[in-house]
């Protein structure tokens, strides 16, 4: 589902920064008061359908089921159907949370993923969406939109559908003012623009404009609700952590043979594209578009959503050997610090959350090529969701971390991989690439479907143990 790029060659040539007038930027210094995850006053609401899936498992032991069933994972609103029609839907989830809220003094925190942009997931084929810029539906076999959607130069029909999706989410959320609601906004979208614009056939300028306008709209509308806070997706260190983001004061902080130049580790010539800076410029442009009030409702940034990049605690080792490729963000603690420094240099000061659902075994992948694998990696559950991050905070130079959370539900597939027990309508190359290795789970069901063997694997290899 989610891209993990470690290629040195994905250098976009079109600068998004030029889309914005630099002199009108509002720079985000305003901080909201509260951490929506603060467990002294809040409780992460547990998705009852996750509990049901766990309890119905044929692979987990009774003991494992009891320990797993009450752990919270985010809810993906990846279609309009998932807002209030499907069961479970965001509506049924919020209804259950509102019921629970009546029985406890702590505020219930519900995390959902706002995920339905036009031409969604332009670099991939496992998690394409339902909205095309042309207004037509995607091809059911390939998941792709028609050519007009990618090259037509405008997206008014697709954006109208996205506005309708967003409006429906907002008017639903309005009914639950006593819940603490967290929106994780559009995983992969803006990172794709930083590295894949002009590099992947569907990551075109038309798609880029649609993403920027869509995310701008989502933030503006969600910001109207005082009980909703937002985190924007910022990929992970294996994607946007390449050099140019690593602050340093001396050469030795840049790996052997690399120089510290003007406060940043030097880049080799082929890495001068400054993807991370490009990404931050996109965020700045969007914050400028939405204005000061709305951008102050963006509490922070979310990393590693649905990915497997190690957290970096307690083990800080460079298992993916990223340093040899000029990436100093070989785990998420390092990545949050690097991005935080770059954001602050650009006048943006926010908080951080990171997905630890499935990154418990940092050595599950062992070089940059393996670490590009994002589909059904045989890892283990990572840290349990918590706002007690004092041990992590001590490792961080400047980033302020609100919580670690489970953004992707462990046990749900990243994408289909065929096999005797499994037929697939669509197969992303990555979901088959490492089937003959020890670290990819094959066969596997369609993206989002429960995989009862995978959950047992993740639980058996959990760190800390369940
Ligand atoms: C927070 O976590 C630390 C270990 O990282 C632990 O020692 C402490 O007791 C925890 N605090 C609470 C309130 O749970």
From TrEMBL:
Domain of life: Eukaryota
Active site: 188 (proton donor), 414 (proton acceptor)
Gene Ontology terms: biological process: cellulose catabolic process
Sorted UniProt keywords: Carbohydrate metabolism, Cellulose degradation, Glycosidase, Hydrolase, Polysaccharide degradation, Signal
A GO term for molecular function: hydrolase activity, hydrolyzing O-glycosyl compounds
Binding residue positions for substrate: 76, 78, 236, 239, 307, 374, 408, 412
Pfam families recorded: Glyco_hydro_6
Extent of the signal sequence: 1-17
Keyword Signal: yes
PANTHER family according to UniProt: GLUCANASE, PTHR34876
Protein name: Glycoside hydrolase family 6 protein
The species this protein was found in: Stylonychia lemnae (Ciliate)
């Amino acid at each position: 589902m989610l891209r993990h790029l470690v290629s040195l060659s994905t250098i976009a040539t079109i600068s998004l920064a030029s889309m914005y007038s630099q002199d009108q930027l509002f720079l985000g210094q305003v901080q909201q008061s509260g951490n929506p995850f603060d467990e002294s006053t809040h409780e992460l609401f547990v998705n009852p359908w996750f509990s049901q899936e766990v309890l119905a498992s044929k692979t987990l032991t009774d003991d494992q089921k009891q320990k797993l069933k009450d752990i919270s994972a985010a809810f993906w609103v990846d279609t309009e159907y998932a807002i209030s029609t499907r069961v479970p839907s965001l509506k049924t989830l919020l209804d259950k949370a509102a019921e629970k809220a009546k029985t406890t003094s702590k505020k219930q925190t519900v995390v959902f993923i706002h995920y339905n942009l036009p031409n969604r997931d332009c670099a991939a084929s496992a998690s394409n969406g339902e909205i095309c810029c042309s207004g037509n539906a995607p091809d059911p076999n390939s998941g792709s939109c028609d050519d007009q959607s990618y090259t037509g130069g405008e997206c008014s029909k697709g954006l109208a559908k996205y506005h309708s999706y967003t409006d429906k989410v907002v008017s639903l959320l309005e009914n639950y003012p006593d819940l603490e609601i967290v929106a994780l906004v559009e995983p992969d979208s803006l990172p794709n623009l930083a590295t894949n614009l002009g590099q992947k056939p569907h990551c075109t300028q038309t798609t880029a404009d649609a993403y920027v306008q869509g995310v701008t709209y989502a933030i503006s509308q969600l910001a109207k609700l005082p009980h909703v806070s937002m985190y924007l997706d910022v990929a992970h260190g294996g994607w946007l952590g390449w050099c140019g983001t690593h602050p340093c004061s001396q050469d030795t902080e840049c790996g052997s043979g690399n120089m510290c130049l003007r406060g940043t580790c030097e880049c080799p010539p082929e890495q001068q594209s400054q993807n991370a800076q490009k990404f931050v410029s996109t965020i700045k442009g969007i914050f400028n578009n939405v204005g000061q009030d709305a951008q102050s409702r963006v509490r922070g940034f979310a990393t590693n959503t649905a990915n497997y990049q190690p957290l970096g605690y307690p083990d800080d080792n460079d298992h993916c050997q990223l340093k040899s490729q000029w990436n100093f963000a070989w785990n998420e603690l390092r990545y949050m610090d690097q991005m935080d420094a770059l954001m602050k240099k650009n006048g943006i000061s926010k908080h951080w959350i990171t997905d630890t659902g499935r990154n418990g075994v940092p050595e599950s992948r062992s070089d940059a090529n393996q670490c590009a694998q994002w589909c059904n990696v045989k890892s283990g559950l990572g840290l349990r969701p918590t706002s007690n991050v004092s041990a992590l905070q001590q490792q961080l130079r400047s980033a302020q971390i609100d919580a670690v959370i489970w953004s992707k539900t462990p046990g749900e597939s990243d994408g289909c991989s065929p096999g005797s027990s499994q037929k697939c309508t669509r197969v992303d190359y990555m979901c088959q690439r490492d089937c003959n290795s020890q670290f990819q789970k094959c066969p596997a069901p369609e993206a989002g479907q429960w995989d009862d063997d995978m959950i047992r694997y993740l639980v058996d290899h959990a760190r800390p143990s369940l």
